[in-house]
Fold this protein.
Amino acid sequence: MTTAPAPHFPVVVVGGGQAGLAMSRELSVRGIAHVVFEKHRVGHAWRTQRWDSFCLVTPNWQCLLPGFAYAGADPHGFMPRDEIVAYVESYARHIEAPVREGVAVTRIAPAPGGFALETSEGAVTADAVVLAVGGYHRPNIPRSAERLPTGILQVHSSAYRNAESLPEGAVVVVGSGQSGCQIAEDLHLAGRAVHLVTGSAPRCPRVYRGRDAVDWLADLGQYELPVERHPLGAGVRRKANHYLTGRGGGRDIDLRRFAAEGMRLYGRLDGVDPGGAMRFRADLAANLDGADAVYNGICELIDRHIAEAGIDAPPGGRYAPVWQPAADQPQDLDVAASGVSAVVWATGFISDWSFVDLPLFDGSGYPRHQRGVTAVPGVYVLGLPWLHTWGSGRFVGVGRDADYLGDAVAAHLAAQLGTDEPVRRSA
C-alpha cells in the first residue's frame, strides 16, 4: 500500500493575526503560493484576550496594514476592542488570505529540501516557513500566587473583562505596564477599591503642545528607529511599553492622581508569605519617579523638535507630581484582612517556541534573527516587538517588516529553483 505524500506548500505562515495576514498579502503580491494556519480564528487575541473597555493606545491613523490603511471618520480616535477585531477580519477578507482557521501547528522540523510540519489536520511540507505568532504565548503568573488564600479569585490580565466579573471587594492588580494600569483605571472608575503593585514601566503624555504625542513621535521618526540604534540595543525588547490610554478619547494615566483619589500603590512584588500576605520592595517612589522622568523626557524631545523646526505650537511644560508616597509606605498587604476578593496578574506572558524543532534560538529561548531572517535558511519570524523598529509589533510597522521578508522569501525560493522568477506553485 502506497502512502500519499503530504500536501506541499511553497510557504507556510504560522499565525493568522495582523502579522500573518500582512505576510500573506506580501506573498500574494509577489505571486508566491502559500497557506496561513491559524490555531483559533482571525483576530483571536484581540477578541478573547482584551477587556470590555479596551481601546488602542495609538491613534487609528496608525492602522496601516499593507494595502488597507484606516479609512474611517476618526483617524485621531482610538478603536475599541470590537472595532479592532472587525478591522483585522475585514483585512483578511480584503486580501483574500488563504487562512485555514482552527488548524494548530504542533511541530516544525527539518525535512529534505525544506520543512515538515505537523498540524491538527495532518502533516504538510514547505519550502519556507514564516513564524508570525508573536511572543505572547502563555500567561506569566509567578509561583508565589499559589500561597494566596484559596478563597481569592485570581485571573490573568488576558482573562479580565470588567469590574462586574469580579466578586465584590477590593482588587489587587499586580503590574503597572499598559494592561495593569488600564485595568486598575477600569476598576477605579467602577468604584472598586484598588491596590496597584507597580514596576518600572515608563509613561507617556497623551497630548502635548496641541497634538497627540504619537503624532509628534511619528514626525520625529521614532517608529522607524531600528533596534540597532536604540541606546539599549536588543535589550529594549525586554522593556515594558509606555502606559497611557485611548479610553474616553485618549488621556494620560497618572498613578499619582489615582493615589490621591484613594488607590493604594505599592512597590514591586517581592513575594507572598505562607500566610498569604503580599510583600513589596521599597521602590514605589523610584518607580513613580522613573515613569515621570520618561514622561518629561518625551516632552523635552518634542520641545526640541518644535524649536528646531520653528513650529508654532502652544506652550509646553513639565509634569509636577500631585502625590508622593509617605515615608512609612506599607511594604506588605494582608489580603484577607484588607477585604481583597480578587487578584489580577498583569504580569505579561511567556514565549513558548517548543513546537519549533529547529536550531534558531538563543540561550533564553528567543529566536535569533536579523530583521526577521533567522540563521536557518527558509525560516523567518514576524510580529515580534522591536523585530526591526519600535513600530514592528504594531499595526504601523508590521507591514514594513512583512514587505522586507517578502523579498527575502522570494529570494530564498528562487535560489532553491535556480531562477529569478517568483514561485507560483499551489498546493
User: Anything to note?
Assistant: The CA atoms of residues 17 and 44 lie 7 Å apart.
